[in-house]
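Final paragraph of the annual report: two paired records, presented back to back.
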Amino acid sequence: MTLDARDLEELTRSLAERLYLQVASWHLYLGDAGLAATLAEECAGRLDQGAAVCARQALEAVQVPIGGGGTRLPMARLVPPGQLSDLEEVLQPFCR
């Protein structure tokens, strides 16, 4: 399933404002990190699998550059567990 440009923009905006990476006690929102669009695009291609599967697979697929890009970690390792359910909630309206 793919999203039209307007829906993809809406998804990106929702992810940017609601989801964050956690490093120590710091919360870095995806919009500030410049990762919201990347996650939205990964999710858009998986929406037909349902919100729960889509969320888990997309978080594993997005590689986050650390320390200038020499190292990359799956976003799933940097998102606290509670954010997974938030991501599923954001994705639910787009899974039609």
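The closing record of the year follows.
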Amino acid sequence: MVVIRSVSAKSIFDSRKEKTIEVSIKTNVGEFKASAPNGKSKGKHEAKSYKKNLLGDIETLKKFSDYFSMENIDFFDDLKRIEDIVSGNVGANTLFALESAILKAMAKEKKKEVWEIVDSKARKFPRLVGNCIGGGKHSGNEKKPDFQEFLLIPNEKSTKENFELMKKIKEKVEQDLKEFDEKFKSIKNDEYAWETSLNEKEVLDVLLKYEIPLGLDIAASSFYSRKKYLYKNPMLKRDSGEQFRYISNLIENFDLFYIEDPFDEEDFEDFSKLTKKFANKLIVGDDLTVTNPERLEKAIKMKSINALIVKPNQIGNLTEVKTVCELAKKYGIKIIFSHRSGETNEDILADLTFGFQADFLKCGIAGKEREVKIKRLIEIEKDLAR
């Protein structure tokens, strides 16, 4: 049983050099800390990162520190007691970091791994989804793909083999971009994906030769305005019908396996039409569902998706993350745990992904803040193989 004796927090820098929160707890089994990532491309229904601001949440945790000492935490569902104390008083980033630190304390007290606190019977390992070439809000170059991420989704025998294959292809892609993009400067974006001036079709042409399952994070809400999808590379406008036809053509012409947020975050109907048309592909909700049980229930009712992104700090509350995962599994919806564009060296995402038995882990290909998560998953795999 974990007894929390005190809680404190401070700001640290994420991989984009922006401030985020790190929470520390002192318990009867030692001191533990955890941090939260920052998102840049956010759905408008996503929970706020902080109640008012980061500093305000740090001060609130100080004030609440003594309240936690009354609570004894023994099982995952006991996190509900912590949520009852602070929910509404701090934001999603703060609550996620606090609960992550508590999970680490629980694991230490029980002499278990963090993932075992979630599900000790977990055995299925997720496939990796890696961002190879980037565009949209995550890239700073002026001319770039309108779509946010061009994804590699290998299906080798182990996490380590998948990781090595993604890295190998990404290195080769650098040479391809030097050949096909005269403006290419070997610069990486927020998620350590290559920045390019090519458009989405040209990027897919580059990746197609590697004969690996490919995916797109279109992040369509980021360029949707006044009922039009406003493309810049090249400049054109598409209404919802034209967007549907365009995405359908891309799926067919490039044999895409994974399509995330192809329409605006309120357009459950077009998501549903695409899911019906391409039932054997992954039609993925992120901005549409924002790790929110109510949004997911609507998506299920309208048959809008067959896969969803889970970002724990989108909702903050880990018991609701559990609810979302249980709901998805009940209706056969694939689960993809995901990093954020502003990451930290925190590796608990790997334990949560495995513990909740997600089907995929979307976590970039390079950068120490992302590699630490994949390496943690490889470590779990290695430990279970012994």
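The chain has 13 helices and 16 strands. This concludes the annual technical report; the extension proposal builds directly on these records.
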